[in-house]
Write a structure and sequence with these properties.
single chain; about 525 residues; alpha/beta; 15 helices; binds flavin-adenine dinucleotide
Length: about 525
Amino acid sequence: MLDDNMKQQLGQYLANLREPIELVGSLGDDETSAKTRELLEDIAALHDMVSARFDGTADHVPSFEIVRVSDTSRSASFAGLPSGHEFTSLVLALLWAGGHPPKVSDELLEQIRGLDGEYKFEMYFSLSCQNCPDVVQALSLMALNNSGISATLIEGGAFQEEVEARKVMAVPAIYLNGAPFANGRMSAEEILAKLDDGAEEKAAAKLNARKPYEVLIIGGGPAGAAAAIYTARKGFRTGIAAERFGGQVADTLGIENLPSVPYTEGPKLVQQLETHVGEYEIDVMKLQSAKALRPAAQDGGMHEVELANGALLKARSLVLAPGARWRQLGVPGEEEYRNKGVAYCPHCDGPLYKGKRVAVIGGGNSGVEAAIDLANIVGHVTLIEYDSQLRADAVLQRKLGSFANVDVITSAQTSEVTGNGEQVTGLVYADRNSGESHTVALDGVFVQIGLVPNTEWLAGSGIELSQHGEIVIDDHAATSLPGIFAAGDATTVPHKQIVIAMGEGSKAGLGAFDYLIRNEAPEEIAQEFGGQAAAA
Ligand SMILES: Cc1cc2nc3c(=O)[nH]c(=O)nc-3n(C[C@H](O)[C@H](O)[C@H](O)COP(=O)(O)OP(=O)(O)OC[C@H]3O[C@@H](n4cnc5c(N)ncnc54)[C@H](O)[C@@H]3O)c2cc1C
């Protein structure tokens, strides 16, 4: 099951085990069971603190449980084979079960360990989903650190009937005590916040007690991370408040256009950005959503950002880098059938539509790429484009033309996603030439019509936005308000790309530096920084 190279690598990791673990297989006569047995035997042969037995009686067959021998209530279970993106999750679960300390804050571990109650999680993932490992790892971390929590991590492809019975149409999908709990990428902090009613208030109280920042960055994508590295290196007290560190990069599979890095993958780049940011004294506040901006009343004064949990952060200068998100169709049925057939991430959810009929809406590069990707997995793809012709690069259009299971419909305006109350059954579009209405029978609809800037929360702040909602910046990344800079996909900068976001973020960081050294803070504000906030 494991090749020599993988065995060697895994052997090195397992050297970190501090106490014995047992792998308990619940297997049948099928091929996946045979592979699971082989995998468990391979792992057990690599370290004398790992043993395997195959007399498990779990509901899922094949599955296996990773159990801490000294406390058998600490365990995590995998149903199906955790290969592909999930192999790392398997390695981490083995290490954590064996007492190797996880690389998370003491605060988070305390919160997990302090959670009272019984929580039985079941979570579905696909092997090609790059959003899934975060959830798999969060749940195994929780299950291995609190005996009241159990986690069964299920590879959807190996349990197709169960997936269909539960109508799982988007992964990661989490069930708690048998009922749907959440869909989509979630960190342990987010899962805990959802379980622990008082968590929001506690987090807000802690943030309110933070000292003002010299530079506060809103957004933890490549633009925000780059800005923070620049201002922290200048010695300024820097904070990042971000809903999700990594931003869109976390949703990206292969990245081949970051100069000097011929190939990388989104989650890996996010991890590297986080490591780089972690090398400086940057206060990273994850899971924090900015709700309103109140610019300084006087030059050099303090700006305030109100967060969704009610906390108020203050800073002498700001870098706004809230990026962008998938654009929605805005037609009836889209919201109702979201995650029940309406999807936005073909890499994540494509494998759940194996052999089925899907539509991709949008004939730009991302739509045509999605259609090519899906044509290899699903039964049939209908690509729907509003314009009279596709807008994707010629090379992508040629590739698309090579698939026999793809139909392209142009001049089509989607007017409704239809469903049977439980899942998508099709869509309705109007032919823009004839005005005639047509229905296409479908199992899934992938929406690929571009991005919208995450700037709604800036409305009314006085900051200038373009007609598309982008933050208007000049060539120094300065916004229309003094001391407030902006960078990346949320701005009017042309071409939304990682390297551009990083460059613009660096420019905005330098802009903030320039502003701070040229603008003395009013006396009362200077005192908040111990008299150091004036020109450095
Ligand atoms: C599927 C996909 C594939 C891509 N592939 C490539 C590629 O191969 N190469 C390439 O160069 N580019 C690619 N891109 C584009 C690239 O990812 C973006 O240009 C880049 O991530 C923009 O960086 P950013 O920091 O401006 O914004 P984002 O990456 O969008 O980050 C925004 C940050 O702000 C946070 N945020 C948003 N709103 C708020 C709020 N109200 N309060 C607090 N925080 C907030 C988010 O959580 C996030 O941390 C791809 C994009 C997608 C979606």
